[in-house]
């Protein structure tokens, strides 16, 4: 599929709900010999969801010989909410030149302004959800971070949800941090997490590097990976002194009943110091 040429009507083209490179079952291979979608246009185009509704049903873009989506010219091209996998090239390629490295503060220009992709710094899961922390180095503006789960790295198979990051000013040494909300996820969706960043004016980035979430440990309220007295203090601080809540509620719910309450403080003290039972199940 090719969107090409100068188009004076912004967002005139919306590619939505198509199977590009698969049979009608969305699985069987029926790939194009070129890119899945090639965007070569000075007017902003849209492949998949909109900036304010990114999870709108996108396209399945798979099994194509070259890139999933090749953005070759212009800026502001949105690539949101798609399922992109098993293409021969890059899932989303800005510049038709393979993976493009991020640059500090994202001053480079080119297709979609060579929008930097986010970097994942931490990801954690429960049996039913996942949360991701990351950073974005970009100029001042509002960015939509979209999270995908896949069976393997280098893919963006299932959009899980998104969060908005506001960059007030780019600081070279301290890119802007973000944390996603708790997003519905399960093991069957795959543990390979990837992100994109989208600015409504510049467009969508390439797909980020891939991180597998660590499983959350019930009762590890301070989320340092082990049980200890620091978890007791963390819970007391959260419950009675206005301290931050656990990263997942499950981390604080040591007793696995009634949510996070003082009962969990007693449960942890009993477990740590009086031979009481291990939080059960140990993993959230
Ligand atoms: Ca590129
Ligand atoms: Ca860049
Ligand atoms: Ca701990
Ligand atoms: Ca509890």
Number of helices, counting only DSSP H or I runs of 4 residues or more: 3
Query: Major beta sheet, specifics?
Result: 5 strands, mixed
Compounds present?
Answer: calcium ion
Strand content: 25-35%
Shape: elongated
Q: Domains counted in the coordinates: how many?
A: 2
The helical percent reads under 10%
In terms of structural class, how would the helical and strand content be classed?
A: mainly beta
How far the N terminus sits from the C terminus, by CA atoms, comes to 44 Å
Short description:
This protein is mainly beta and 284 residues long.
Describe the structure.
With 284 residues, this protein is mainly beta. The protein has 2 domains: 2-204, no CATH class; 216-273, Orthogonal Bundle (Type 1 dockerin domain), CATH 1.10.1330. Helix content is 10%, strand content 30%. The protein has 3 helices and 19 strands. The protein has helices at 229-240, 249-252, 262-273, and strands at 2-4, 14-15, 19-20, 37-40, 46-48, 60-62, 69-73, 78-80, 83-85, 92-94, 119-125, 129-136, 141-150, 158-167, 176-179, 183-184, 192-199, 203-204, 214-215. Strands 11, 12, 15, 16 and 19 form a 5-stranded mixed sheet that branches. It has a 4-stranded parallel sheet with strand order 1-4-7-10, with no helix packed on it. A hairpin with a 3-residue loop joins strand 17 (192-199) and strand 18 (203-204). Helix 1 packs antiparallel against helix 3 (262-273). The chain is elongated and about 65 Å long. Residues 4-9 have low confidence and may be disordered.
